[in-house]
Amino acid sequence: MQDRQRNVLLQALQDDDPEVRQAASEALEQLEASADISGLRKVLQSSDRRQRVAAVYTLERIRTPEAGAILVDLLQDQDADVRAVAVQAVGARQEKTALQTLVRCLKDPSPAVAVHAARALAHFKDKRLVPYLHTMCRSDNPELVCACLDALGEIGDMGGMDAGVSAAAHSSPEVRLRAVRMLGRLH
Question: What is 125-187's CATH topology?
Fold first, then answer.
């Protein structure tokens, strides 16, 4: 089956239309990446952090349910760097099955994972996320508060107004700036 697909795509690389050639190139890349999922699973089981992180970035580009499921599982990885990259990938892909896990990542012991989780949640633009982001705006971590305010602004729901009003009086000028910008985006 894949040989037949590959042959058609290889022929399409010679098409007269540049858009068809570009699409064939992208499709071939996707086909090759999908075939490599088993290899990526092995890399993810290794102890080499750089290879594991690189594998997560590769999985982000593979648009299959299997790759998405692996990324969602990685949200609970023991390595904070792997979790942080997986959070970003899941957000970029808008993996709906990961929403609850991403919300839990807002309280991750690694500040970077929590910040990336807030940014990832913004991609979903789901009004049900407002209370969780609102709660995290009370964090002692100004970077997390900023990310949550940005996410609330991206969602745009008026339910985030109280968080923005409170944050507008924060001791950090960066938090105040994000609060003011967020309040301007609510509708």
Answer: Leucine-rich Repeat Variant (1.25.10)
